[in-house]
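Thread: quick sanity check before group meeting

JM: Hey all, I'm pulling together slides for Thursday and realized we never actually wrote out the predicted structure for the chain we discussed last week. Dropping the sequence here so it's in one place. If anyone has concerns about the input, flag it before I start.
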Amino acid sequence: MESAITELDHLQIPLQKIQDATDNFSDKNIIGKGGFGKVYRGKLKHHGKMIKISARRLDRKSLNGDIEFWTEVSTLSTLSVLMEDHHYFTVKMIGFCDEKGEKIVVNHHCRKGSLSQYISDPLTLDVNQRLSIAAKVCSGIFNIRTKLKGDYIIHRNINSCTILLDEKWEPRLSGFEYCIKQSKERLNQVVNSEVIGTQGYLDSAVGKYGGVNHKSDIYSIGVVLFELLCGRKAFQENVLLVPLVKFHYENGTMNDIIHPDIWNQMNPRSFKCFSEVAYSCLQEDPTRRPEIEKLYNQLEKANLLQEEKDEMHEIPPIFENLLDISSPNLWKVKNWEHLKIELTHIHSIPPSPLEYYARSYKNNYHHTFKQEIEYYDKQNVFFIEQQNIDKLPKRRHHVAAKLLVYKEDVFLSEIKALYGCRHPNIQSFLGFYHNGDKMMLFYDYVSNKRLYDILDDGNLTWEKRLKICIDIAHGLDYLHNEMENEKMVIHGDLNSKKIELDDNFGAKIVGFEISVTKHKNQNDDSLQMNGDIKETYYMDPEYVKTNKLKRESDVYSFGVIMFEIMCGIPCFMVEHEDGKENEGMSSLVRRWCDEGIIKEKLASGIKEENYISNLFLKKGPNKNSLNTFMDITCKCLAKSQNQRPGIKLIIKKLQQSLSFHVSQ
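JM (edit): ok, ran it. Output follows.
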């Protein structure tokens, strides 16, 4: 400790300067009180400039506090170095004083005070500001984790009082006196510690398992998120917020406890995204809470969705145009008339923004949403070509409806690919609507879950992950080898956002916008995709060089998905070593295998050691199962198309991996 203190000598500030800055610790300058002591505002000349400061003064009557004082000074010193070139949304330390029995931490003053002051004031702190603050706090924690070499900081006391706001309403995380530094190699293990924190924010798992880990902070962040969302403090009028929000979230009555001014400002899609990830932070089992990367990404998504509020609170004009059925039918698709769905069969053209956007997402090609149609039994939809379809019984179905405008090439690509397609691991195509430049495609509705969104889910066990991979492989085998009439489909844009999961985690391949359909005997060399791939991390490197699209291109993309399933994070979030930022997935995975570090990259929820307790083991991957899976994943990621395995061999190896695991 003494050597560490010596290294901080350059940050020492004489006591007299702090006394002058705070008018000798005048009561009129007190801006906060806590277990550590009082906080004073003041003006201090620092490096020739007069700056506003906050001085946290340890209560001299306290018998404790030395360790906490030096913990905060050391941590903030480290973070201040990190913040020289970056903005990490943490309070910035100017220096400290350890003189004449006084222990004082001096930070840059955050003019707006603590977030806690504004929780119940949606006029001063509107929804956009609340969403921005939430995302930036998580961004700060995520960036600290990324930049700290070898260590990870567990804060242990995140709450709306330790989140300060500067003059621009930017959040600054403070209160690091109780934090613990944990080696990244031991990230998933519990650190034995006493229960410390603020009522309403304490993770119950800390007492249960005798210590903390990085998911303890996630719980506290979840409480702050619901404070921001509801306009209620974590402990208010002797009522704890957490059990209240859990009850109302699970019963679909959150609007009963959200401040009306906040509720009226929220975009329904943004609310859904924000509340879902906030609720996941409060799971009793820490393994089911999201990693900070996933949390940050979802909060950023909520921010983006909120920006679309004005547009989304009205039914898009395109729907009003669709309702005009007097114009002549100009659809050009031949021999598919039995798949055509009239607008008179389409029910529930979105009556409310919440209903409309509950299952909606956009990309460059389309807008997809949940819809209800009256149509033939979907089990028989492809067997009715020769029948009088008007006499067939109809019933209502919930479907996924895809709206396209001026995208006839995409429209035709999807119908060509999926017409006649009947496989449990391919989303079923039901029919279409086409009127001039307005086109809609209808599919069997799967669920709200994309594989991409739950990669780090603690409930996604190794067995479930293997079964998802096997499902995807069976779907690809059907597309590549088993379709009727010698047809073959190359998906061309396979990624974890194009894998939807039903309620039993059964996987279905979706999203055939730029797929290529051909006869099995057709030469591959002239094949090209019908559009641009946006998810470039999944793109076959040989196709990039040669423009030759083959079945092996899908195999490469599937290899990237298997890598994500194994590691529990999207491929674009993988941390690269300095100087290797442009390293492709193929080289990265092979290097990790060669260096023997790939097992360290496993998703936290499937590691053999239970990161809730050091006393119990989870049933993590069997060694042979994991090795078999890693081997076939590496082969799928070969740079050359002719070095990649066929899909039938991949299925065999995945089934072998599953067999090893379930028999252990």
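AS: nice. Residues 2-108 form a domain with the Phosphorylase Kinase; domain 1 fold (CATH 3.30.200.20). The longest strand covers residues 394-405.
JM: adding both to the slides.
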